[in-house]
Give the backbone structure.
Amino acid sequence: MKKIVILGAGTGGTAIANKLRKALSPSEWEITVIDRDDNHVYQPGLLFVPFGLCTVNSLIRSRKQYISHGINFVIDPVKRVNHERNMVETDGGSFDYDWLIIGTGCRLAPEENEGLMDEWGKNAFSFYTTETAALLSNAMANFNGGKLLMCVAELPVKCPVAPIEFVFLADWYFRQKGIRNKVELHLSTPFPQCMPNWPRGRVIMMDAARNKGISMSTGFALQEVNKNGKFVQSFGGEKIDYDLLVIIPTNAGDQVIVESGLDDGSTFIPTDKHTLKALNHKNIYVIGDATNIPTSKAGSVAHYEAEVITHNLLAEIKGREPEPKYDGHSTCFIVSEKGKAYLVDFNYDTEPLYGKYPLPFAGPFSLLKETGMNWLGKLGFEWLYWNLLLPGKNMLLPPTLVMAGKKEQPE
Ligand SMILES: Cc1cc2nc3c(=O)[nH]c(=O)nc-3n(C[C@H](O)[C@H](O)[C@H](O)COP(=O)(O)OP(=O)(O)OC[C@H]3O[C@@H](n4cnc5c(N)ncnc54)[C@H](O)[C@@H]3O)c2cc1C
């Protein structure tokens, strides 16, 4: 019996396990998925928790129910990958493998940001984990005026558009509460222009922020949170004060990656950006946020990658070479207020353009345009996630960017 072991039953690990189970005979291939717990969180929903638009509990489901029959699901923290002996060690045992797929994602590391732990859960909150999103929801409800600073500590960060979505929704939220004139909203980000290098997209986002009265500090890499002075300071010496600090702390790869000597010094795994194979390892693929490839750390990316890795792993099993099929494709809705959103679709070489998605001319979603339909798409994505993407169903859409119907100018 040949063995595939998958580390992490998150977005990427679950989807690829289910795809491989369909493609490989259970009498020849054993598939094992290992995660430290049984709580699968629909992470995009965390954005809505601070605004009372959903609860943390509604976003959590048992991982088990999304892992197909015929896959061994082990709940046990992974302690080490012994890649020289093709073996994974957990708290409770060890698992040898012919092929390893690493989908351990990335974790929040607030302890990496000087001074942050002094404020964590008191005046500084994040919406990136279930615990801190719930705390932030209370802090927002009790905030009656002052300066709210949304600070992105450093890059990379998963879902790089979520911080701007947060300030857009905060503008809407405080308008609903009737206290927008008492709240100053400020976004600080290490991106030079508030967003990844997207000339068209960032102009649209900067204009939208300006129109909503949201100020920004770009190129701001966090050095310190100063509890006594109630300010954050960048490595460049710039200081921004706050009354309520909403922060995306350092995002890091899992410690097991570092301790197994699999990272490149950044806590992420050096990965071929087209084949998705771990560099220097002949039997390891990497999916999702754990890679160091230069595209967004996003669920959409993990889904597109699952198709490419499935294709390449099946090819290698049949004795063929993996193909450089992945192009960095990523698709993200960007909420601009309750009821409206933008949509971006891009890859390594093509910045977000105008047009329609997913059908090139019919949509129904509009690229780089703020529409109510895009908002419905953002909400509908949750259904798609649980019912089609995690089960590894064939989406009938290519994993790579479709250029048909894309335009440089709006209609
Ligand atoms: C607030 C927020 C909003 C977001 N919005 C969007 C969005 O709108 N669209 C979008 O596409 N993406 C969005 N994302 C990003 C998306 O959720 C992630 O990019 C995606 O989940 C990554 O999938 P993954 O499989 O790499 O990691 P994950 O889904 O995080 O899974 C990693 C798994 O590995 C397990 N693991 C890690 N280390 C170990 C260990 N040592 N032992 C055992 N198990 C381990 C973890 O428990 C976890 O289950 C958002 C994320 C956040 C936080």
About this structure: The mean pLDDT is 96. Helices lie at 11-23, 116-119, 130-142, 162-177, 199-211, 255-259, 299-317, 372-389.
